[in-house]
Amino acid sequence: MPRLLLAGAGHAHMALMAAIPELVAKGHQVTAIGPGERHYYSGMGPGMLGGTYQPEEISFPVRDMVESRGGVFLQDKVATIEPARHVVILESGHEEPYDVLSCNLGSFVPQDLAADGNIALPESPEGADASQAVFPAKPIEQLWKARRRILELARDRQIRVGVCGGGPAALEIAGNAWAAGRENGGKGCVVQLFAGRKLLRTMPEKVRRLAEKALLKRGIEVMEGSYVRSVQSGEIHLENGQQHAQDVIFLALGVQPSPVFRTSGLKVSEDGGLLVDQYLQSLSHPDIFGGGDCITFAPGPLAKVGVYAVRQNPVLLHNLQAQLEGRSLKAFDPGGAYLLIFNIGGGQGILHKSGIAFGGRAAFWIKDYIDRKFIKKFLPDAPSKTR
Q1: Using an 8 Å Cβ cutoff, are 191 and 171 in contact?
Q2: Which of 244, 347, 337, 261 is closest to 296 using CA atoms?
Q3: Which domain holds residue 325?
Q4: 0.85 cut: is pTM over it?
């Protein structure tokens, strides 16, 4: 029985998990590996931080999605891939064989990454407060922990929140942290956004102006012109020598692909992403495919945005079946311009596509509709089981 192994149960594998009954009916064995029983949709993570969504509203019950459709789910993490043996070794030590492997291992916020160099974090933060004060933007579950921390502290006093980063994730986190601090009679947050050289420097000027206006209206201070050098014991240290004490700190300094591919000896890009061709097929190992943030698309770089993982779904589904069955592969077309909508908290958003940009409640409503529709599309028909 041909063995299809899905390393990761993320956005790019949603169509594959939905098609498990079809794959099994054709005689294929399907196994999926995921770090948890649920997979969180990154596009709705900031909304969870700001109180718009509960965790179950923005996550997929991936174990149930796989098992209820006839597949096998392994709750574990990939440690390394041994392509010569056609085996994936998990952190538990278990070895899982495959005939065809698809990787959707996502990305992470490295704690040594800044926009122009390195950010040093303390190895062992001092005190309970410090140990609970620093939250990376990924994994998305960290934003739920951060929300609980903000609500806890803001019950008694106004708190200080620092967001390290100048991109869309930092913008969304700053706005939603501000919103969380005002919930349930909270005393609120004084939010500082440490944007490095410039806030949203890769975005059109109109989008930047909308963001700056929204942040200014809420009293969120944007610190530009100097990068974060280190985060130590509740303080953000800038390269210009300034130090800013914070009660809660977010790291949204960019993402990197999983390090698994480099350590496994696969062909990778400079940042460690799995190098794939137009068929989303590894340049060095034709029985390995990939999608989402963990890959580097050799024909041309793709931004780390969820829209590409969604667009890769049908191509991965076709090509993995084709590889198992000896049929021809289909090329992935990244498509043209895509819609970007930022959730900046409090039911407000900023929308941008092809020169059009506007902010306000309508932008958020559009994003909310699209996101909820995406979640609903791939949920299993039966209610998820309680475990």
Answers
A1: no
A2: 261
A3: 3-35+76-108+256-336
A4: yes
